[in-house]
């Protein structure tokens, strides 16, 4: 199944968080739904100053530990030119 945020090597290291006035959610791409992760208003974290607060904020978070760098050494069975 395709993801909302494409990634190299299908690492799927990017997560989407949706922040509303009352709660914060993570987007579950497989189930296509929002799962609650924290109570409270975290919209202020999206920018500088109170003028940046929007009715809904979306945070893109990349977990680089999930990023697939591929094999560390070339596979000798492939036969590079």
Explain the layout of strands and helices.
Blueprint: E1 14-19, E2 23-28, E3 33-39, E4 57-62
Antiparallel strand pairs: 1-2, 1-4, 2-3
Would you mind describing this structure in some detail?
This protein is mainly β. It has a domain at 17-66. 0% of the residues lie in helices and 31% in strands. It contains no helices and four strands. Strands 3-2-1-4 form a four-stranded antiparallel β-sheet, with no helix packed on it. Strand 1 and strand 2 (23-28) form a beta hairpin. It is elongated and about 60 Å long. The two termini are 35 Å apart.
Kindly report the spatial arrangement of strands forming the biggest sheet. Answer: 3-2-1-4
The number of distinct helices, counting runs of at least 4 residues, comes to: 0
**What is the structural class?**
mainly beta
- Based on the structure, what is the oligomeric state of the protein chains? single chain
Cα distance spanning the termini: 35 Å
Query: Percent of residues in beta strands?
Result: 25-35%
Q: pLDDT below 50 for ≥5 consecutive residues: which ranges?
A: none
Quick summary:
The protein is an all-beta fold and 81 residues long. The protein has strands spanning 14-19, 23-28, 33-39, 57-62.
State the main characteristics.
81 residues; mainly beta; 4-stranded antiparallel beta sheet
